[in-house]
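Exercise 3.2. Students should predict the tertiary structure of the chain below and write it as structure tokens, then compare their answer with the key that follows.

Predict this chain's 3D structure.
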Amino acid sequence: MLESLITSKTRIRILVKLFLNANNSGYLRGLAVEFNESTNSVRKELNQLSSAGYLGKEKDRNKVTYKANTNHPLFGPLQNMVRKYVGLDTIVATVLARMGHVSRVIVIGDYAAGLDSGLIDVVVEGKELNTVYINQMAGKIESEINRKVNFTFTDSYQHDNGFVIYDELIEK
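Answer key:
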């Protein structure tokens, strides 16, 4: 989907890294190593995205750190597009369909760090969850989004790692 709109694989990787979770950041050499790309191709994309205002830059000594510009008017739509590309919207819709009382859905692991590794770790928080339903639906979700999904169920998730993709208190 996103590949037909954005032809640069490096740009897609940068968008996933920095827009999936707006708290993520990266610097040129670190991103080049992470993506297994040349620093020139990463630099070109970072420069284009930052000159367009999509990325913010912070200088710290001799390192420039890039982060999604959450104040940009297109930040929300871009983040939604990246999250749809990864398949987070499908996960949330399936979980909420017949899961029971879901209070939050949290992405942890590689995708929380912005790494498109192919394994999405999802914590589903709530009371009296229908775990049988989601375990039956896991295969369907995985084939639909072309990524493996690992679900963890809890009545309370207190860790700081990860980011919330659904919160019943905010959605109401």
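Discussion points: Residues 2-76 form a domain with the Arc Repressor Mutant, subunit A fold (CATH 1.10.10.10). The first strand starts at residue 25 and ends at 27.
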